[in-house]
Design goal:
The protein is of the alpha/beta class. It has one domain: Ureohydrolase domain (Arginase, Chain A, 3-Layer(aba) Sandwich). The chain contains nine helices and eight strands. Strands 2-1-3-8-7-4-5-6 form an eight-stranded parallel β-sheet, sandwiched between helices. Strand 7, helix 8 and strand 8 form a beta-alpha-beta unit. The longest helix is centred in the last third of the chain and has 18 residues. It is globular, with a radius of gyration of 18 Å.
C-alpha cells in the first residue's frame, strides 16, 4: 500500500489499495476532477432536499454514499468478476452547489451542469438529494436524445397531479414537458396508490415478489429495446428493513438482493445515465441505506463495463 490519497492522486483507470477509513470521500476512490473530456462517466452529488414532503436529510446523501463506497473498492466486484474501473474512466466532479432553499437556482445550475456533461457525450452517475433533482437532469438528456426512456425504481410513481411541485410530482411535469418516452418507460417496486398511470408500465412490489427478478429484467429489456434509457433509483424502492434512512419509507418493498438481481438482468440496455436518490443519513442505521445506494451505483457501473453480464448467475 503506497501513501497518498486516491481522491486527489489516483489514476483515472484501475483500483489502487487504500485504507477504507482514511482519505477523502470521493465516490469509489475516484479522482476528484472537473476534466469532463477525460472521463467516460462523471459522478456528481446534488445536496438538495428542498422538495421533500416528509422527513428531510437527503441533502446529506451524497456525502454518505461516498463514504460508504470506500468499503467497496477492492478491485474485482462480485459477482461481476470485473473491476469496472479497468475499462471505464470515472471521475468524481464533486457537488453542484447552490444557495440552500433556492429552488429556481438549483434547477438552473443542475440543468446547466448536466447539459455540459451530456452534451460532451458522457454518462452521468448522480447522487441525490431528493428525487426532484432528476427533473433538471432529464431536461438536459431530452435536449440531446429527445424523449428519454425512464427505468424508475421507487415505492412511489412520483406522477401525482398536485397543486404545487414537490418530489412526488416531477415525473408528471417531465411527461407534460415531453421529456419522457412513456410508451417504453416503466416503474418498478410501486406500492402507493395513484389514480392515473399516465401511460407508463407499472411493476408493483407485490408483482416483483411473485414473479421474481428475472421476469422483471426480461420485461424491462423488452419494453426499452435499443432506445437510450435513464435509470433512476429512489432508495425507498427497498423495504425499510433494507433502507431505513430515507424520507418516505413504505413497507413491503424490494430487498437489496432483489434489486441487485434485477440489475444483473439488464444487460444490453443502452443506459445513458443513472441517479441514486433519497438517501437520508439522519434516519439511517449503521450506514445500511448509504451502503445499499453505493453498491447499486457500483453495480450500474459494472453493468456498463461488463462484456457479457447476462451470463451472471444472480
Amino acid at each position: 500500500m503506497k501513501p497518498g490519497d486516491n481522491a486527489f492522486t489516483g489514476q483515472l483507470t484501475g483500483t489502487a489499495s487504500e485504507l477504507v477509513f482514511a482519505g477523502a470521500t470521493s465516490f469509489a476512490r475516484r479522482r476528484y476532477s472537473r476534466d469532463i473530456a477525460s472521463a467516460d462517466v462523471v459522478v456528481s452529488g446534488i445536496p438538495w432536499d428542498g422538495a421533500t414532503t416528509y422527513r428531510p436529510g437527503a441533502r446529506l446523501g451524497p456525502r454518505a454514499i461516498r463514504q460508504a463506497s470506500a468499503n467497496l473498492c477492492f478491485g474485482r466486484v462480485w459477482p461481476w468478476g470485473i473491476d469496472p474501473f479497468e475499462t471505464l474512466r470515472v471521475i468524481d466532479w464533486g457537488d453542484v452547489q447552490f444557495a440552500e432553499g433556492n429552488w429556481p437556482e438549483m434547477c438552473e445550475l443542475l440543468e446547466a451542469h448536466a447539459a455540459t456533461i451530456v452534451g460532451a457525450g458522457k454518462k452521468m452517475l448522480t447522487m441525490g438529494g431528493d428525487h426532484y433533482v432528476t427533473l433538471p437532469i432529464l431536461r438536459a438528456y431530452a435536449a440531446v436524445h429527445g424523449p428519454i426512456v425512464l427505468v424508475h425504481f421507487d415505492a412511489h410513481s412520483d406522477t401525482w397531479d398536485d397543486d404545487h411541485e414537490h418530489h412526488g410530482t416531477m415525473f408528471l411535469t417531465a411527461i407534460r414537458e415531453g421529456l419522457i418516452d412513456v410508451e417504453h418507460s416503466v416503474h418498478i417496486g410501486i406500492r402507493t396508490f395513484n389514480a392515473d398511470d399516465w401511460g407508463m408500465a407499472i411493476l408493483t412490489a407485490p408483482w416483483v415478489h411473485e414473479h421474481g427478478a428475472g421476469a422483471v429484467a426480461e420485461f424491462v429489456r423488452s419494453r426499452v429495446g435499443e432506445r437510450p434509457a435513464y435509470l433512476t433509483f429512489d432508495i425507498d424502492c427497498l423495504d425499510p428493513a433494507y433502507a431505513p434512512g430515507t424520507g418516505t419509507p413504505v413497507v413491503g418493498g424490494l430487498t437489496t438482493a432483489q434489486a441487485q438481481a434485477i440489475f444483473y438482468g439488464l444487460a444490453g440496455i443502452n443506459f445513458v445515465g443513472m441517479d441514486i436518490v433519497e438517501v437520508s443519513p439522519p434516519y439511517d442505521h449503521a450506514e445500511i441505506t448509504a451502503l445499499a445506494g453505493a453498491t447499486l451505483a457500483l453495480d450500474w457501473l459494472c453493468l456498463l463495463a461488463s462484456p457479457d453480464p447476462s451470463k451472471l448467475a444472480p
